[in-house]
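Researcher: Structure prediction, please.
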Amino acid sequence: MNAPTTDLSTQQRTLTILREAGALCDGHFLLSSGLHSDRYCQCAAVFEQPERGAELARLMGERLLKDVSVDAVLAPALGGILWGHELARAIGARSLFAERSEGGSFALRRGFEIAHGSRVLVAEDVVTTGKSAMEMTPLIQAAEAKAVGYAVIADRSSGIFSPDAPFYALTKLDFEIHNAATCPMCARGDIPVKPGSRKGIEA
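Model: Predicted structure follows.
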């Protein structure tokens, strides 16, 4: 289920912030999957300067407050924690995060609890498959609470992620992905850079 598309000015401002923070980079990248890409995004870089994260949260909050009422923001660790915290502050909700247990599933720790019957917004910085975001569902259901939406900075899922609740994204990112053997950038003689090996790009 998708919420109304983000307006063009918000998308452009989001992309500007990502680029200014060094979170969105153009080039030739070797991904952990072994595939090659013409761009790479690491949203964690945005929060190195807290005012940037706060601005993105404000932009998202302006959209959310028109559509939904939220009691708590729930984020998966590690990537969603800072985004979830800033977003909760922007909309005046509680900020919670879940961590993976030894068994591999997400769990609420550190005294966090989802209030019975509460309205929960799931926050993740970037979604590709949306797997981590959807793993918040059992925690919400266990509290007999309601997932009122999913809020991300960047949607990289190319339509794969389509949850039952409204899905809010400040921007969409479509990257060119290639196998090494057929990569046109390699064919031009460009050498791929592994994310994390250059300043501003983290694995």
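Model: The first strand starts at residue 24 and ends at 30.
Researcher: Thanks, that helps.
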